[in-house]
Amino acid sequence: MKSENTPFTGGPLDGRVLPVLLGPTGHPPKWYEVPVPAADGGPATVYAYRRVPAGYSKRLGLQRGWVYEYAPGGRVRTRPKWPWTKPERPGS
Asked: Region Disordered: which residues (predicted)?
């Protein structure tokens, strides 16, 4: 599989560059989660990073790659925009 060295900003991985596996489209995943085990054996703490553009070139405005930015609130999980089942009819 192909990987890309991607820089991280903010949070515990600030300033580090890690190899991140690329998906079938050639982009890294939108979210990168790092589980850190607790010292006392409790549940692991999960740090979430969101993929953002690294910048754009001056002349043509082309994107220069990706950077992972720390999301202190964690990963935002949303439901699909449509239900997978048909809605119930009123009165049935």
From this structure: 1-20
* Contact between residue 69 and residue 55 where contact means Cβ atoms under 8 Å apart: no
Q: Percentage of residues in the chain with pLDDT exceeding 90? A: 54
Model's pTM, two decimal places?
Answer: 0.75
Question: Which amino acid appears at position 46 of this protein?
Answer: V
Angle among Cα 71, 28, 58 to the nearest 5 degrees reads 85
CA dihedral 51, 52, 57, 59 (to 10 degrees): 130
Specify the pLDDT at position 38.
Answer: 87
Q: Cα separation of 34 and 8, whole Å?
A: 12
